[in-house]
Amino acid sequence: MTKYIIYLFIVLCFLILEINAQGTYRAAVLEYATKDEVPLSLTRILKNVENYVYYMETAADKNVQIIVFPEYGLTGWENINYNTIDELSTEVPDPVLEISPCRTPGGYSKHLIDLSCAADVNKIYTVVNLIEKQHDNNSKQKLYHNTNVVFNDKGAVIARHRKINLYNEGVFTPGDQLVTFKTNFGVTFGMFICADLIFKKPAIDILANSTITDIVFSTAWFSQLPFYGALSIQHGYAKSNRVNLIAAGINDPSKKNGGSGIYLHDGRIAQTYIAGIRGTKILIQDVPKVASVIPLDTCQDGNVALERGIAIPGLPGGQLPDISTFVTSQEDLINYTFKSLNLDRNEISETICSGRSNFCCSFEITVARNGSAPLNYVYKLLAYYGVSVISTNTTVGLRNCALVACLNDTNASCGGRHKEGPHGIIFESISVKGNFNPNTTHAQPATITHKLVPITDYTFCEKKVNGTIEIEMKTSSKQNALLTFGIYGRVFTNDGKPVGPINSASSFKKNIYLTIIVSVLIFLLQD
């Protein structure tokens, strides 16, 4: 009888383990330093494909089911122009046909064929960014796209996303499609590339499909502070949208490139990587499957503990000690409204409004001096409702609230970094609150420490109030290394407008003037 009970217990344990295993999938991302010793050419691409195949084999040995590679990993992002692009490009089969270039090689470049074969041999879903060549039947011309290609575990092309929001990439034609793909391990993914993440199409629109709970993301992100740190923007997107995000970044710290991670739908971070030394790093994690997206009007608690079976990095974010050598740039904050924080006070309660608008941010902060060490950062509160430039010919609408670190008393120094992290001050608690339009705005948390990693020990609450969304972020533990803590809000209806603050008063005056002009015209026409 005893043996029978033991046998049943063992069987039950195995069943439980099997059920748990079915609740996750294993993903890998590659933070990759492109091999660029040889000139930009097909030869360079093939050398990098060899490295990709090695990491696909490494991942397969660890039972990884899907691996994501970064944007521009095969070529690097420099010197791609009309003189070089044709040699670097390949045609990509229509995903509807599910063609395997490995098994049907005619007409495809060697690098596409090799990647297809590697996906087949290693039985691994593979997301690769490359330059796609398309023959346009209407114009009879060649078009080139910055494209993510997905191979299934048999090497067939099952998805193709053409980057929609190009970032100073005039040689490419933008795409216009939302792209999803299904896997045989029960997860349906959405997909986009780099700057796509901060635009309504595709990053928000794709989530209208309720089956999309996981996103794969390839990027060559340029980190700008205080709001556009690579890991901060990735984590903020995952946390605010309640999705798993599998993000692979190109690595070149001297050029502001780097930052990869696997982020979970409940706000936890499975693993991130960012470093000041150029190099390659593979991240492998078990990702919990999401039954359904958490509804709005909820709070997400901060929680650094991860479920069993998902490794916790030894250092927060897995960064190297030399992160100070990672180059970041500063955003142009000239149109923002600032208020300096008086750190001689222990408790601070402030409300700051953007210019002459009715968009205001409320802050409740408790601080304590940390020993006798002198302060090496000045902290300021900021608010902004307006339009900012993010690339040569692209402007975006913003509603931002944040506590930010500055190198000195000048507003222009905010977003800068000393080699040393902040010292002399501890933030015992921080609360940031603002109201956002649910129909035109997407808001997400923005948190960055001196090590360029986001924090997780805070709550992010969204509540419907009188037709608006009230968002409050509140720390749940003491912070002594913050560079940014706040809300990054996108106002999509203001994209493409001239740079500058949007003032409610001026808009009101314009409406009055327009009403008067229309009234006069109607009166004259009646006569």
Automatic annotation (TrEMBL):
The keyword Electron transport does not apply. Residues 1-21 form the signal peptide. Keywords: Hydrolase, Signal. Pfam families: CN_hydrolase (PF00795), Vanin_C (PF19018). InterPro entries: Biotinidase/VNN (IPR040154), C-N_Hydrolase (IPR003010), C-N_Hydrolase_sf (IPR036526), Vanin_C (IPR043957). The keyword Isomerase does not apply. One of its GO terms (molecular function) is hydrolase activity. Residues 25-289 form the CN hydrolase domain. It comes from the Eukaryota. Belongs to the carbon-nitrogen hydrolase superfamily. BTD/VNN family. This is CN hydrolase domain-containing protein. It comes from Ignelater luminosus.
